[in-house]
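Practice record 12: protein with manganese (II) ion.
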Amino acid sequence: MVSAPRKVLCSIGAGPHAELLEVSGATFAPFATHHGYDLCLRGEVLARDRPASWSKVQLVRSLLRVYEVVLWIDADAAVVDGSVDVLDALEPSSLMALAAHSTNEGDDPIPNAGVWLLRRHWKTQRFLARVWRSTGYLHHKWWENAAILELLGYELDPRVRLVRPTPMYFRTTLLGTEWNSIPVDPSPAPRICHFPAVPLDQRLSGLRAIADQLRHSEP
Ligand SMILES: [Mn+2]
């Protein structure tokens, strides 16, 4: 008998983001229960010597030593329809899946680690080690996401585009917008809604509106 993979859903909400995770985490919990994920929600950064966003890399690396599948969802995102496990969207040959958006018609979809699914594999760990070593991006405006893009084969300047896809790119599933519905590129049937690039109070009110809606739609 093949046993189900050990899965964990994780996120970090440190400092001013703790309030976000308090609201979004309440939408993660039913998804986790329904699909058999353990929940690992942290209230503090793990890498104190780097900008907070980098702690995401450290957390998923450490959890992949224990779990076969790690799902990261940003603290400023909420699960609005948890009926489908995002793992079902991971192509069988893929080692990870990332949210992705095209900013302009015809442009390459740009991966976004706001929703990030990883499968345990030495190649996944090697990729994460390379992301971690990409210290040239420590203070980049996109932090670890910039390192991820470069290591997948994207050029960042003058605009983001896929120029030399790496082997890891071909082992990466780019998720549809339903898994990361954002205000500038919303999905008609979102499963996860995300509020990037807006002030904290707007993220919080967006999440709270969703949480209220979910509460009222409960049977
Ligand atoms: Mn975010």
